[in-house]
Write a sequence for this structure.
């Protein structure tokens, strides 16, 4: 069975899991019956407990689906605390359905898989030892990778039915009113976790900071919460910020960022009231810096900035260059703090951010997005999931979702060390080329041939050579040569869903 | 069939509507499967329309359930505009399920009933010509009266399944992000309407003020909205405020208010961190004034004030005498404006306010509430629904819900003109005596015998005579005599649900 991006899909697994092959990036107008949780009624007076083990005992049974959020990133203390009790409790055959998995969770997930505690996983991504473990066949059932918007969709459809959500928060009152903005371990927006709070049958908050009732603003509400577990520390504030908080000084990255800015500024979308998502990382910060200057120079203001938010973006808000920041997650302390003080920085849940199956998500209104790539191929298909060795080492994140923007720019170096980024065929298709418009490399840009308008607008920019994507691929190949083909077994270790829940690709077990 | 407050219930109607008789005010710990709406998927780009008729045609079919909110109160222009199109469109057999009905809607509802357009109604209340019409048998099927918390419960259970919600808002962007705080016709909290926005299959916003995208704060979200209808005016700002905005000068009302304050201050609940709900009307404002002084004198601050909010209550917030205002509706412009500027005034939906079937509502945490009564009987049962002539002229509002407070005070004059308020048996039981603690009249107070602790605390207050409720009833009867018994036919014109959805009483057709 092949799907519309020409990937062979394993018919047995597709049938077992009741999957459809990916067809199109168009979502259309289906009518969707949403699902709702079971609620165990209470007046809410006895929610505070200190014994995680007891809460696990009261809520969990073999075969259930459990969830966590990843807003603490590598500063997370919650996942390991809870999973320790679950493994030690001897629970079996659980489905792990977090918003994503970060490196600090890897050892515990592997232990839980080996113990038979976790037998199914759905996540935005995985990296490091866990990606390696799964790619080498460590988990019997294929991992289901879903974008943030698709996870929201899957929860709202009932494809993911969370029995118990364990959600760490930097503050909560005794009934469970909580937000991500105050306390020691602040991370700002609770965007991804809001889905779990709304849809899980049982919601367990963990916090090191029980505040007086009623706690406001209440991003998570007492009407959603069953238990409030007091713990010593929910997270390490120093490790919550993800990656770069300073502009890159790498000349290659600066060149790419400056070219990305040229593409944006010369596109038809750079006008008063435009909107953008830049993402995180040193290069993204550099793009934001260039964009800021261009907005000042051209007297242009943005209506909104979207997505994972960084301080340089909230600086634009505070400068008045951006009217609203629509915030599903904050990548650094500065962005998290700004959410607390600037009422134009609106917390949004993952559904509002990117669920394709609703009445309009923020990404549907997005003009410009800059996304990264591990690989991009001559059909503009993008891989952000598997490495050049075929091993899982990435995350879909909002990649497929934000690629619905009117101008989707992939920003990536032509080669990384001895490895080509622009390739004949990506190892794993995450985002279909159909939703990608421009590739920006340090050598120049390639424009998706279906975008004649952009060919025209961007065809003759000074200092921005335009290539076909095949030319860029050949240039990359000339520099680093042709890699030896990867070898995989027939066994499927992961399914990559497109944001509509169809299968865009699979990942096979790597052959050593 | 009799229920636990000794009311005869019509077995045929009870069976037809699948109702249980009222048993107890205890909600217990049932496990509830919630329901969820159908969502018609769209990117949200074509929501703005100007033709109400076309929207009605696109969304409505015979037999459906439609809803409205009553936050505009008698300044509402939305209900009549929409119902005009629905009646003229010839639709039949609709269920009207608004959060409540205000006087300005009465003529149109009667016309719709006569036309066969509306055949079923559920509401918090009705007054004036509509109450009269229904009490005289104008609607074939019994009206279902539900408290605000019970309406939330019924929506979350699927007892009320809203097909199309028509919601007026003072602002919205083109995708439907909206709040109640900005524009000409502001009313502050959208508390009741948030239930409709979340649970209706189709949500139609009507506004006279389309603002730039994205509109924040978004109490109603684009993910919930199907249409944004631009109209000339959604409401009359001068008629949105309900009733009194000034303290009463009526000596009887002042005496009652001052005694209410004495009861609160001498109760075990008046201590730092206590919480209260005072409601609206001149007497409630007077209570708030007395309470303010008592709080200052005793160095006591409240953790929260709840409910329908008035400016004197938000003044307490701004003075620092109250930490949080939990706001399901605002009764005047001052309170609505304060919500915009004071982040400690938190908008809450009707479920969070008072739904008994969740994981804790605000009313479950309430220490003190002051409620009104049309009648209260010697079992402390309260009627806020039917007049002394047996005609429907009231609303449950949050009466049953807030009566779950630790100290529930009914504040009412002993007699009104030639009519006794304290009676042997109320015409219609809305709130069972079991949840009422103290009656305060201008002559003195009566304490529910089951509250020995309050008998002790309040038994010897200077200037606060304590009577049994029977003594107060006899005193009232002495003043105004025994009224002629009301005469009703056998026909049931309304069912009064308790907040758990059981039947606490019915209203019969009045015999002329």
């Amino acid at each position: 069975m092949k799907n519309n991006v020409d990937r062979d899909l394993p018919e047995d697994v597709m049938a077992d899991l009741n999957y459809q092959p990916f067809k199109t990036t168009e979502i259309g107008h289906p009518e969707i019956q949403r699902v709702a949780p079971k609620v165990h009624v209470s007046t809410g007076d006895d929610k505070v407990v200190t014994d995680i083990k007891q809460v696990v005992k009261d809520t969990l049974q073999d075969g259930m689906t459990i969830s966590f959020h990843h807003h603490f990133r590598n500063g997370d203390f919650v996942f390991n605390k809870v999973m320790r009790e679950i493994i030690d409790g001897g629970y079996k055959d659980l489905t792990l359905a977090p918003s994503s998995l970060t490196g600090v969770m890897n050892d515990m997930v592997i232990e839980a898989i080996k113990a038979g505690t976790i037998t199914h996983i759905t996540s935005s991504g995985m990296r490091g030892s866990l990606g390696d473990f799964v790619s080498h066949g460590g988990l019997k059932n294929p991992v289901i990778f879903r974008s943030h918007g698709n996870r929201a969709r899957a929860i709202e459809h009932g494809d993911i039915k969370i029995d118990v959500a364990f959600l760490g928060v930097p503050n909560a009152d005794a009934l469970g009113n909580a937000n991500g903005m105050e306390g020691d371990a602040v991370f700002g927006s609770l965007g991804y976790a809001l889905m779990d709070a709304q849809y899980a049958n049982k919601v367990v908050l963990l916090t090191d900071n029980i505040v007086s009732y009623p706690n406001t603003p209440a991003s998570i509400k007492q009407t959603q919460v069953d238990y409030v577990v007091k713990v010593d520390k929910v997270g390490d504030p120093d490790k919550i910020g993800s990656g770069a908080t300073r502009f890159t000084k790498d000349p290659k990255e600066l060149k790419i960022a400056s070219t990305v800015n040229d593409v944006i500024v010369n596109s038809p979308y750079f006008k008063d009231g435009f909107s953008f998502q830049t993402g995180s990382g040193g290069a993204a910060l550099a793009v934001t810096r260039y964009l800021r200057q261009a907005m000042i120079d051209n007297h242009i203001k943005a209506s909104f900035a979207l997505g994972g938010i960084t301080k340089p973006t909230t600086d634009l808000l505070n400068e008045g260059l951006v009217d609203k920041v629509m915030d599903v997650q904050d990548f650094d302390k500065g962005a998290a703090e700004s959410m607390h003080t600037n009422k134009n920085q609106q917390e949004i849940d993952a559904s509002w951010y990117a669920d394709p199956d609703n009445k309009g998500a923020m990404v549907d209104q997005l003009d410009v997005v800059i996304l990264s790539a591990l690989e991009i191929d001559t059909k503009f298909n993008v891989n952000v999931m598997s490495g050049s060795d075929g091993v899982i080492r990435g995350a879909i994140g909002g990649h497929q979702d934000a690629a619905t923007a009117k101008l989707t720019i992939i920003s990536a170096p032509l080669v990384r060390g001895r490895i080509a980024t622009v390739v004949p065929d990506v190892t794993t298709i995450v985002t279909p080329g159909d939703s990608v418009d421009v590739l920006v490399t340090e050598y120049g840009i390639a424009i998706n041939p279906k975008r004649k308008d952009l060919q025209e607008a961007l065809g003759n920019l000074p200092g921005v050579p335009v290539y076909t994507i095949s030319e860029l691929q050949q240039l990359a190949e000339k520099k680093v040569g042709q890699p030896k083909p990867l070898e995989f077994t027939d066994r499927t270790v992961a399914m990559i869903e497109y944001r509509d829940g169809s299968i865009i690709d699979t990942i096979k077990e790597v052959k050593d």
Q: What stands out?
A: Chain A touches chain B through 56 residues (CB under 8 Å). The mean pLDDT of chain A is 96. The domain at 47-240 of chain A is CATH 3.40.1080.10 (Glutaconate Coenzyme A-transferase).
